[in-house]
Structures are given as structure tokens and as C-alpha cells.
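Example record

The entry below shows one chain as it appears in the dataset: sequence first, then C-alpha cells.
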Amino acid sequence: MTRSEKIRDRLERAFAPRHLEVIDESESHRGHAGYQDGGESHFRVVIGADALQPLSRIARHRAIHDALGKDLLNEIHALALVVRV
């Protein structure tokens, strides 16, 4: 399972989002810190989920990080989050 698939799977199980995009932006970071050949090092996640609506911005980000887990976050160099409630 790729990192993109892991991200999608864990967020779908945790939040049952009505909208979810997992975008691998690694290629645009070629030559920068953390870039890995083959990509899957820099991601942008766009998520819309009712479960995130009552939370503050910081709590939303923490909830997403918790859902992804430390093991997966340690494999990723950069994660940008766009939360639409």
C-alpha cells in the first residue's frame, strides 16, 4: 500500500469524509529538503468531514494527525492540510 493509499484509508476510516483529496506534491519539491526519489514525501490533503466541524482549527489538525498516526507521519516530510467544514 502506498503512502497516498494509507493516508486515504486512515482518514476515510476516522472521519467518513464527504470530500477527500490526497495530492502528492513531491515532484514540485525536487531538490529541496526531504525530497525522496519516487515521490510520496510531500502531500496536500483537502478534506471535508462533518466530524471536524465542531473543532477549532488546531483541534482539527491534531485530529487528522492522530488519525494518520505517528508511524505514517514519520514517513512524510511535509503535510499541508486544507479542512473544509
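Notes for this example: The first strand starts at residue 19 and ends at 24. The chain has a mean pLDDT of 92.
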